[in-house]
Structures are given as C-alpha cells and as structure tokens.
Amino acid sequence: MSGAAKPVSKSQTTITELMIPSYANFGGKIHGGILLSLMDKVAYACSSKHAGTYCVTVSVDRVEFLKPVEVGELVSLHASVNYVGRSSMIVGIRVEAEHVKNSTVRHTNSCYFTMVAKDDHDKPAEVPKLILETHNDVRRFIEAMHMKEIKSRINEQLDDVKSTLHVNEAMELLKKERCVIAFKDDE
Ligand SMILES: CCCCCCCCCCCCCCCC(=O)SCCNC(=O)CCNC(=O)[C@H](O)C(C)(C)COP(=O)(O)OP(=O)(O)OC[C@H]1O[C@@H](n2cnc3c(N)ncnc32)[C@H](O)[C@@H]1OP(=O)(O)O
C-alpha cells in the first residue's frame, strides 16, 4: 500500500548545522565525510517523510566538493523529493555554507541520493505518487528521469568496456598517459 499522493512541499526538509572544529580535516577545512553524512541524514529525513516508511540509501550521485567549507560556517542542506518510481525516490540536495559574520551564503554543492522505501519485511515498498505543484517540481522530475536514463546507459557502456577489454591489446591507449608500465616478473 503506497497511500495517497503527496506534494513535493510536504517532505521538503532543511537541516542546518554549525561547523565545529572537531569536524575539520588535517588542512583545517571541513571533512568531506562529515558533509556526506549530513547529506545522507537529510536525504533520509526527506524520503522517509514522503514514503512514510524506513528508507535505505542505494546510490549517491554528483557529490563533488568544489568549494571548501570553513570551521565556524553554518551549513544548510535543503532536500526535496525530485522523482519517485515504484519504491525508489531521487532526493535532490542543495548545500549552502553561510559565513555568520558577513552573512554571505555560498552554494557549495548539489547532489542526488537515490533512496528506497522498505516495508516491515525489509522488501522494497511502494511509495506515494508525487504531486508536482510548481514548474520547478516538473523540471526536477523530468531532469531526474533523464539522469536515471543517462546513468543506466553509462553503466551499460562501462560493463561493455570491462567485458571487452584485453590489457595486452590496449597498451597502445596508454602511450600518451602519465603512467609507467612496470610489470613484475610473475605478471
Ligand atoms: C570525520 C570523518 C567521518 C567520516 C564519516 C563518513 C560517513 C559517510 C556517510 C556516507 C553516507 C553513506 C550512506 C549510508 C546510508 C546507509 O547506511 S543506508 C544503508 C545502506 N544501504 C543499504 O543497505 C541498501 C542495500 N540494498 C538493498 O537493500 C537492495 O539492494 C535494494 C536497494 C532495496 C534493492 O532491492 P532489490 O531486491 O534489488 O529490489 P528492486 O525491486 O530490484 O529495486 C527496488 C528499487 O531500487 C532501485 N534500485 C536498485 N538498485 C539501484 C541502483 N543501483 N541505483 C538506483 N536505483 C536502484 C530499483 O530501480 C527499484 O526502483 P523502483 O522501480 O521500485 O522505483
């Protein structure tokens, strides 16, 4: 049972967290693992609100740490269900870092978590349909459809490359690359 359709707005979730010194890496910037863990937390909160069940993370896409986050900044993670399948949901997350003293807000990352709703027997559970109330909701749903399709094409192509690759015949490909072939005797 998936229950009545729900609007995107009903499960939209924001988490804000202060970046404390213990979150820093050796370089003094916020550790990417901390940010990843916060992204997972907000993706879970958002997807489970929509599904009304426990959810698991299946796939994480487009996590790129393009701009460092500093200790003392407030990081806000805004999550929305962009797309629903039968049991899966694609949650879009926008990460922003706010410098409290000068009130500047930087968009540091956008990423996509695929979450699957689970029933009481740990099986994928059908989720409610998504009510698209704005043009943005429609745009995000269609973008997610494209993303799913492109990802599945990439996965197929990578499988093809792996299954057809013969290392000895592919050596030519490496000639201009910055690597040195140095097989040990027993290779
Ligand atoms: C100081 C430093 C600190 C460092 C600190 C670091 C912390 C860094 C934290 C990072 C955070 C990480 C994230 C952890 C978050 C958890 O720990 S959650 C737990 C981990 N995840 C899991 O355990 C999931 C394990 N997988 C499963 O349970 C099953 O494979 C699944 C996903 C339910 C699929 O089950 P299945 O029997 O294959 O079912 P099936 O009907 O075929 O698929 C169900 C749906 O999944 C979809 N699906 C299946 N596979 C995929 C896929 N690969 N991609 C997309 N969709 C898929 C299907 O398309 C289907 O969708 P619908 O058509 O129903 O919409």
Automatic annotation (TrEMBL):
Coiled coil stretches, renumbered: none
Domain HotDog ACOT-type: 9-121
Record organism: Chryseolinea soli
GO molecular function, one term: long-chain fatty acyl-CoA hydrolase activity
GO cellular component: cytosol
GO biological process: acyl-CoA metabolic process
Protein name: Acyl-CoA thioesterase
Gene3D superfamilies, A to Z: Hotdog Thioesterase (3.10.129.10)
